[in-house]
Amino acid sequence: MALKPVALTLNGSERAAFTEDGENLLDFLRRRLGDLSPKFGCGQGACGACTVLLDGAPVLACLILAETAAGRRIETAAGLAGAALHPLQRAFVEGFAAQCGYCTPGMLMAAVALLRANPRPTREEVVAAIGGNLCRCTGYEPIIAAVLDAAGHMERRA
Amino acid sequence: MARHRGRGFAAINYPIGMNLGGDPSQALVHANPDGKFTVALSSIDLGQGMKSVTRQIAAETLGVPVEDVWVDTADSDTGPHCMGSFASRGTHRVGNAVIAAAREARAVLLEAAAEELEVDAGDLVTDGRGNIHVRGAPARAITTMAAAQAAQFRQGRTVSGRGIFLIPLSPVDPETGEMTPVSCFAHAAMMVEVEVDDETGEVGVTDMQSAYEVGRALNPRLVGQQLTGGAWMGMSHALWETTEPFYPDRAHRPVDFSAYLMPGPGDLSSHHISILERPAPDGPYGAKGPGEMCANPVLPAVANAIWDAVGVRVDDLPITPEKVLRGLRAQGGARPRRRG
Ligand code: FES
Ligand code: FES
Q1: Of A127, A131, A142, the CB nearest to B228
Q2: All domains of chain A, ordered by start, with CATH?
Q3: What is the pTM for the complete model shown?
Q4: Do B229 and A138 touch (CB under 8 A)?
């Protein structure tokens, strides 16, 4: 199988690695670039655990060919925190919105995309934004509450 | 064609740990030279909070700040044996083992401190903030770090402790079946409201009101988190989840989880939870285990609510729209139980 170089921007850094034909973006990020924050849940677009932002839009990394991300901007949960946690991360921690944490990186990225586009979402808009992300542990309610809480904090600061 | 509302109730006694006992867990506790403690367990934290709660239990028993305790559950090959994280047994079984191990370690810590302070170990107390002092004389003190270091480097002691908790396996009388199945029961009661669509057979849970009796809630936020998520899972078991969504031929069974239905964030029910605390005599600081019990009352309560709403009694889970529709057809339509 032919190896092809793919260069992209991952959480603000220029990164490059070889990819194989047919490799999806999730495997590329995890195996080639070592960013383990996006998770493999189903590999077929059913669970949202692999959600990353591609040029700012939430996508399921398991359904995207790595090659098609060449030259584009990827954001993952690993890039959210600066010196301090991102307000969404803080709200998840404070609101006990994670148990096993497997869904959390995908939930965070879906929520990041939502709050950028819509800093004051309603509960229904939060539900719609995370509607493609499955969680086995929390019953979703704490996650919805954490996203609304973070939105409140971010707005008060802005 | 209409939507019918119904209400159902269920109450449960929930046994903590393995039926008949015989499920030991071990813990090992030791001080490191920096005066911090490590608790070694093979009990896995899969998000339920095993590490947090055993850390609290160890700190409380040792008499040191919770920040000074590290729980290591990394490897069940090398750690002390545990039967596992199941049967809602973690807090109860492992917690008791941690208390036993921490008590033993604390006794050595106090002996080491006593030797340094030239007093009797029986006269020493901990302040929970990292100091050991003579009872009634806070000035005659040594830090836990200094005591641990003295033990390590001057006295040649290991500040460590071993703990095991075992409820011995109960015999079963072959004649009468008499046995002691369990030593510790938690309890729950729940009322749910559903809406049943008599045209599609769909059931939606619209509200849950519950009371869970958990012994002592050692970490109330973790308990609340488990109850919220677990009750949601109970709703999911009641109405959605099955490994055989297709039939009649088993060859049509799904091959992966994409056909395994669960409610998503758009299918939630409001849920008001009351946590009742009745400390268990044999529980670590009174704790029982909220684990599986969060889900259990939801299933019968939902089944009862459907019966209340349309008069259909489904005794086979999950209660899919198809089963509801078949029941409705068999009895010639909805027959709400509620009058007026
Ligand atoms: S792993 Fe991509 S959606 Fe499940
Ligand atoms: S926290 Fe476990 S899947 Fe969401």
Answers
A1: A142
A2: 3-79 (3.10.20.30), 87-157 (1.10.150.120)
A3: 0.93
A4: yes
